[in-house]
């Protein structure tokens, strides 16, 4: 019997013993392709020699120094890499240990910004339904995943309200064009600002490409431009959560680059450190930092392990490898191949409703019937079955489900490392296709 609290308390998962490149090896000697990098984390695969060497060098020099007294070289370098060129006006970075912590920092910094600039009446956040921003209480209150929120509703902050996500596959009406659907969503957001009182809103927070809850759902063209315009008009901030979709996963360093807008605060994690160390963070616009600097002169927040030297050294090495090996180009090329192969293999499958994604961030949504888009009975736990069938065939993938019409939907995410080869893409799709066919 294991003494560890696993995700399921009824069964023990296989033990992962080692990892090399795209492969994981379990205690029974099985070799498994890590087809989703966990939850879109392992962007360089496992045991990349440059990252290991950078971590070792940092550990030999300095493992820890408290940020109340010191900064450290690796954190300074990571901030330079991420915002030294001020992408979209983002000029400062704060590093923590996870995506949830990153979202907490984003929410608190946004609130503090308005206190500092003399707008204390701004106390509300608008978020989206069917979103996920983390499991800590603030991030969970921001998130819109009904199932994850439900047990904790009595203890979640009521500073958050939720509007519809941009989810064309299910929510665009048959008689609507893309433009009309985007206009309807913009009107809904505007109405929410009006309902709350526009000058009470701190920020609108959204995932640039929705990850776990809906499965790799990118917004339609024009959606984020409309959102940015509404936030600007009402003086509110735009927070984009790119914990899953960012740092190259979608084919550009930041997913928002493909939307023609930039956020005021961006949350990053997963691909930032590629799983080599727990690290997340926020990238912040000059406007927000100047507000804090001119006011109290400090961010009223902090953690023991913020800007951890070894975590930052690992993330520096991950980012350098992405640049040196021109991996964003590989993400775009291999992403195209993944889309094509998935479409060839599963595009006409009667239980595959939608295949969607960007870069190397793809999901397959499974449905009982394609025409009606009806979801499977949640008791079947279909996405879990796909996961198990895939594992039996030597592929690890990431099953998730949103709440669709109050019921659980099934989608499975594929997010291989940025280093993936054409041959590996073909093997992933072959094993995944076999797993779907065996499961449904
Ligand atoms: N935000 C998004 C979009 C995520 O996908 C996740 C994790 O899946 C989080 C936040 C929370 O990150 P973490 O699990 O590192 O706390």
From TrEMBL:
User: What NCBIfam families does this protein map onto?
Assistant: PRK07483.1
Entry keyword Transferase = yes
Give the keywords, sorted: Aminotransferase, Pyridoxal phosphate, Transferase
Name this polypeptide is given: Aspartate aminotransferase family protein
What this protein needs as a cofactor is: pyridoxal 5'-phosphate
Any one GO cellular component localisation term in the record:
cytosol
Any one GO molecular function term: transaminase activity
Q: Which Pfam families match?
A: Aminotran_3
**Entries under SUPFAM superfamilies matching the protein:** PLP-dependent transferases
InterPro entries xref list = Aminotrans_3, PyrdxlP-dep_Trfase, PyrdxlP-dep_Trfase_major, PyrdxlP-dep_Trfase_small
**Organism in which the protein naturally occurs:** Caldovatus sediminis
UniProt record similarity statement: Belongs to the class-III pyridoxal-phosphate-dependent aminotransferase family.
CDD domains xrefs = OAT_like (cd00610)
Gene3D superfamilies according to UniProt: Aspartate Aminotransferase, domain 1 (3.90.1150.10), Type I PLP-dependent aspartate aminotransferase-like (Major domain) (3.40.640.10)
């Amino acid at each position: 019997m294991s003494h560890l609290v696993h995700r399921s308390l009824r069964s023990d998962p296989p033990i992962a013993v080692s990892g090399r490149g795209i492969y994981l090896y379990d205690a029974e000697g099985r070799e498994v392709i890590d087809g989703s990098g966990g939850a879109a984390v392992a962007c360089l695969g496992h045991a990349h020699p440059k990252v290991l060497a950078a971590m070792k060098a940092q550990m030999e020099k300095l493992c820890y120094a408290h940020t109340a007294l010191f900064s450290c070289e690796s954190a300074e370098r990571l901030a330079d890499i991420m915002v030294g060129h001020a992408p979209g006006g983002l000029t400062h970075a704060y590093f923590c240990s996870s995506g949830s912590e990153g979202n907490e920092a984003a929410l608190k910094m946004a609130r503090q910004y308005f206190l500092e600039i003399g707008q204390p009446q701004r106390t509300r956040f608008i978020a989206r339904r069917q979103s996920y921003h983390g499991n800590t209480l603030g991030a969970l209150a921001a998130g819109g995943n009904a199932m994850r929120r439900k047990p904790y509703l009595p203890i979640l902050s009521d500073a958050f309200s939720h509007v519809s996500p941009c989810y064309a596959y299910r929510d665009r009406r048959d008689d609507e064009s893309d433009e009309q659907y985007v206009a309807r969503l913009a009107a809904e957001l505007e109405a929410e600002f009006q309902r709350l009182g526009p000058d009470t809103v701190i920020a609108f927070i959204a995932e640039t490409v929705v990850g776990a809850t809906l499965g790799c759902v990118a917004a339609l063209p024009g959606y984020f431009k409309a959102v940015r315009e509404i936030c600007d008009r009402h003086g509110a901030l735009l927070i984009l959560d790119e914990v899953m979709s960012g740092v190259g996963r979608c084919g550009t360093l930041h997913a928002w680059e493909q939307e023609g807008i930039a956020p005021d605060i961006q949350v990053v994690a997963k691909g930032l450190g590629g799983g080599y160390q727990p690290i997340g963070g926020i990238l912040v616009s000059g406007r927000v930092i100047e507000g804090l600097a001119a006011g109290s002169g400090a961010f009223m927040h902090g953690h023991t392990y913020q800007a951890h030297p070894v975590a930052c050294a690992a993330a520096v090495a991950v980012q350098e490898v992405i640049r040196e090996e021109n991996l964003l180009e590989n993400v775009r090329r291999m992403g195209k191949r993944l889309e094509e192969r998935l479409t060839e293999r599963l595009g006409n499958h009667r239980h595959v409703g939608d295949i969607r994604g960007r870069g190397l961030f793809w999901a397959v949504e499974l449905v009982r019937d394609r025409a009606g888009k009806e979801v499977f009975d949640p008791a079947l736990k279909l996405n879990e079955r796909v996961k198990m069938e895939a594992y039996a065939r030597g592929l690890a993938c990431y099953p998730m489900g949103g709440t669709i019409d109050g019921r659980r939907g099934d989608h499975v995410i594929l997010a291989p490392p940025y280093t993936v080869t054409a041959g590996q893409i073909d093997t992933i799709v072959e094993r995944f296709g076999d797993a779907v066919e065996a499961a449904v």
